[in-house]
Amino acid sequence: MRVCANMIRPWRALIALSMVLVLSSLCWSMPATVTPVFDRDYLPKAREIIGKARHSIDVAIYMFKTANEHNNASADLQEELIRAAKRGVKIRVLFDHPGKETDFIYEANIDTARELLAFGIECYFDNPKRRMHAKMMVIDNRFTLLGSHNYTVSGMNHNDEASVLIDSEPFAKQSRAYIEQIIRKGKRIQK
Length: 191
Hints:
Blueprint: H1 5-26, E1 33-38, H2 42-52, E2 56-61, H3 73-86, E3 90-95, H4 104-117, E4 122-125, E5 135-139, E6 143-147, H5 153-158, E7 162-167, H6 169-185, E8 187-188
Helix pairs in contact: 2-3
């Protein structure tokens, strides 16, 4: 069966709507604003909230590939994090460790981590015995940006992706605690 490109768009909307409904139900006792973020809208939304960060940014990301790609939105995202660090924002980035240092995910993540470390950004690997598949950013214990976007050229520019921005202090604090829990079981990356 051939899938028509026009059939994919309604599925993307249905998935995003489902995410909004599920997250809204999780936040029913918390005041929250939930905004869908689709496809190429991720980078502008991430830039906006990173640009407003004053205290902290915590990132949990499966794959963050910034090297050697033309029109690399993930490299732009990395630059935005570096600008925030230069403003004095405390930033921690948690990467997946796939278990083998020869794995392409490890290579992409460690290359990005080394660049971030040069600007005082704390970087961590999760426990390599577990797969950390989260794609989450928590800003100032208020905003949580989470969903399906990996920080890669494909994830930012080519794939059909659905994420949400949640403006809720209680939800952000829970999300940050989740990241902290994984960091404690992982390992800090040194220069």
